[in-house]
Design brief:
Helix content of chain A: 25-40%
CATH superfamily of chain A: Transcriptional coactivator/pterin dehydratase
Number of helices of chain A: 3
Oligomer: homodimer
Number of strands of chain A: 4
CATH architecture of chain A: 2-Layer Sandwich
Largest sheet of chain A: 4 strands, antiparallel
Structural class of chain A: alpha+beta
Radius of gyration of chain A: 14 Å
Strand order of the largest sheet of chain A: 1-2-4-3
CATH topology of chain A: Gyrase A, domain 2
CATH class of chain A: Alpha Beta
Strand content of chain A: 15-25%
Chain lengths: 114, 114
């Protein structure tokens, strides 16, 4: 069985009944986005990656690209900007954890960086 | 004795020998920016405030205004953007804590928000 590329996925509208990613799905999807890690904040799993930049303005320009991406999918991350770095965290508030959407957006964030 | 308004201050170039804000100065300057608090992260004092917005894009637009402010003073904060909120933290890396510059930029951030 081949796994469809995350980058070809489309963000689905979520509600509180939407399924959390299973352990098997998380493993399979993480393999496609090897620079991301799953962290836990207040019991909620989130996808996290930090990107490096030459200065503050370039980090902010990337944050603006991510904002455009987030708006187009109607799904929004946490963005932490400091001098020379931008950290993203994707998770799904409505289900208090990780949905396929978050992996799709993480993959798309990498494309925006590339 | 009257305290000069922070908002009229100018950010000075800092080096490792620049003075940390004294307890008396912190008290006096915080009185001018009552929505800010001093927090400590890894032993480093920082000024922190969270601002509320209607959505992600407005929070990001504020982050862009803060970026312009930071560039004009050559002093940069940490900016955390989530849906409907933007949190700022100002501190001075070179002295591992708070300098007058941080209070001046906090006051200017409030002006940018107003």
């Amino acid at each position: 069985m081949t796994t469809p590329p995350l980058i070809e996925g489309h963000c689905q509208a979520c509600n509180a009944d939407s399924p959390l990613a299973s352990d098997a799905e998380k493993k399979q999807w993480l393999a496609q986005i090897p620079d991301w890690e799953i962290i836990e904040i207040d019991g909620v799993e989130q996808l996290q990656r930090q990107y490096a930049f030459k200065n503050f303005v370039e980090a902010m320009a990337f944050a603006q690209k991510i904002t455009d991406l987030a708006e187009s999918h109607n799904h929004h991350p946490a963005i932490l900007i400091e001098w020379g770095k931008c950290q993203l965290r994707w998770w799904t508030h409505k289900i208090h954890g990780l949905h396929e959407n978050d992996f799709i957006l993480a993959a798309n964030s990498d494309v925006a960086f590339a």
